[in-house]
């Protein structure tokens, strides 16, 4: 399309010499449409791209970077993103077909990590490196650093801080404890350990073994403690509790006697009592105790044949020899030919061993004055002693009778007819023996077989 307009043209004429100036005013119509010029190397303004590069190709050759029809490719430097047209062309209106510019690229903000932190060399710009570190007690899992890449994305994946440091626990020292006196155990106490952890403050300590403050048996006991943190990291410790029972040398029973010992027999604090068989009595201490220094207190006792002095002058003098030691069975009859006496005498002779085990001594009172006799086995009693016994315990000379006295000299039972050994022993065992004596008697039940 052609365009025309009126243009005023002023022509000045200068006349030499006269100084006269002539003006002519004339209007003409002229076509102002620019002519396409493919040879003009600067048809469009020279292209430029800050923080980028422009690569142009002209139909006329390399020298014509801005000539009409030239096409230019836009690219940005590393770390910049192209905004606008990637390719522009120089148009007939002396303008490029589009615009572009390079904007600096950034990576997104990295999230924080639990129990850790990170520091970056250039913030979140391209080529910035962010290094990750963990709090004390935690260890990095994954890559310890990430780099902001030229496309605006981070390298790798986000690491995590994991608790891999186990807790710390220290057990008390091992200990030796001597068993308590008379026992085979010892009460052992200690302060339970506490555990520490760099990551967690509250930890539960678990005991594996016997509780402190309880009785421990003789021997070695391994006590363990273990603890877990919230990440299930485990720590453990152990120590030994040793209980020692101090023992004395074996204590041997006396000849014609036996021992009854408490606890385990020869451990510290154990008490051993001396007992003598029937017909024998103890001479010396009644018991000995195992001491801390592993020795027995006192000297050993012995069992000696019972020596009863029958030639004493009074009944009390005779009875004092039995007081708190033995029981008495007084047998009385009008004469030796009394059938009840003879029957009873036979049964007593057969029961002599059983009576001895029950610490029973038999006194026989026979006849009437002046032929009255009294005896303990073959030892004869004085007449005044016989009379004293009859009066003290109201024993008649007229008929057969038996009086059973306990260890304190008390009249416990009277028999007016002969009794067998089973009946007599049953009464003694049930009413005159204490529990300990019955246990000892049961252990020696076959002694008389």
UniProtKB/TrEMBL annotation:
Signal sequence coordinates: 1-19
Domain (HYR): residue spans on this chain: 162-245
Molecular function in Gene Ontology: signaling receptor binding
Single GO biological process annotation from the record: positive regulation of synapse assembly
A single cellular component GO annotation: extracellular region
Primary localisation category: other
Lineage: superkingdom: Eukaryota
Residue stretches making up the Sushi domain: 54-104, 105-163, 246-305
Keyword Secreted: yes
Coiled coil: none
Organism: Oreochromis niloticus
Keyword annotations of the record: Angiogenesis, Cell adhesion, Cytoplasm, Disulfide bond, Repeat, Secreted, Signal, Sushi, Synapse
Name of the molecule in the record: Sushi repeat-containing protein SRPX2
């Amino acid at each position: 399309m052609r365009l025309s307009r009126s243009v005023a043209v002023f022509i000045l004429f200068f006349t030499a010499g006269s100084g006269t100036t002539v003006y002519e005013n004339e209007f003409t119509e002229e076509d102002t449409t620019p002519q396409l010029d493919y040879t003009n190397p600067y048809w469009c303004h020279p292209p430029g791209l800050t923080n980028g590069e422009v690569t142009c190709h002209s139909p006329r050759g390399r020298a014509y970077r801005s000539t009409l029809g030239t096409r230019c490719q836009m690219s940005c430097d590393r770390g910049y993103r192209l905004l606008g047209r990637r390719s522009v062309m120089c148009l007939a209106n002396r303008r490029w077909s589009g615009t572009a510019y390079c904007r600096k690229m950034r990576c997104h903000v990295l999230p924080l990590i639990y129990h850790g932190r990170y520091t970056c060399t250039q913030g979140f710009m391209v080529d910035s490196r962010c290094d990750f570190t963990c709090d004390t007690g935690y260890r990095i899992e994954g890559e310890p650093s990430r780099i902001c890449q030229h496309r605006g994305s981070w390298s790798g994946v986000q690491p995590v801080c994991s608790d891999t440091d186990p807790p710390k626990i220290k057990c008390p020292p091992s200990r030796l404890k001597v068993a308590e006196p008379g026992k085979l155990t010892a009460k052992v106490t200690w302060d339970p350990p506490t555990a520490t952890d760099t990551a967690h403050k509250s930890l539960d300590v678990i005991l594996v073994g016997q509780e402190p403050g309880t009785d421990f048996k003789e021997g070695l006991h391994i006590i363990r403690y273990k603890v877990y943190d919230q990440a299930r990291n485990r720590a453990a410790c152990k120590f030994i509790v040793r209980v020692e029972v101090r023992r004395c040398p074996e204590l041997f029973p006396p000849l014609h006697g036996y021992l009854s010992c408490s606890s385990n027999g020869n451990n510290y604090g154990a008490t051993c009592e001396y007992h003598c068989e029937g017909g024998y009595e103890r001479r010396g201490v009644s018991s000995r105790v195992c001491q801390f220094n592993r020795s027995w207190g006192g000297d050993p006792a012995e069992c000696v044949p019972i020596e009863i002095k029958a030639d004493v002058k009074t009944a009390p003098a005779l009875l004092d020899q039995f007081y708190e030691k033995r029981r008495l069975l007084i047998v009385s009859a009008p004469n030796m030919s009394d059938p009840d006496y003879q029957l009873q005498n036979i049964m007593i002779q057969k029961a002599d061993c059983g009576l001895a085990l029950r610490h029973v001594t038999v006194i026989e009172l026979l006849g009437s004055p002046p032929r009255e006799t009294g005896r303990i086995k073959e030892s004869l009693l004085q007449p005044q002693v016989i009379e004293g016994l009859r009066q003290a315990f109201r024993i008649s000379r007229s008929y057969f009778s038996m009086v059973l006295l306990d260890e304190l000299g008390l009249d416990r039972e009277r028999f007016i007819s002969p009794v067998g050994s089973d009946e007599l022993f049953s009464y003694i065992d049930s009413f005159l023996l204490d529990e300990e004596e019955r246990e000892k008697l049961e252990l020696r039940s076959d002694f008389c077989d």
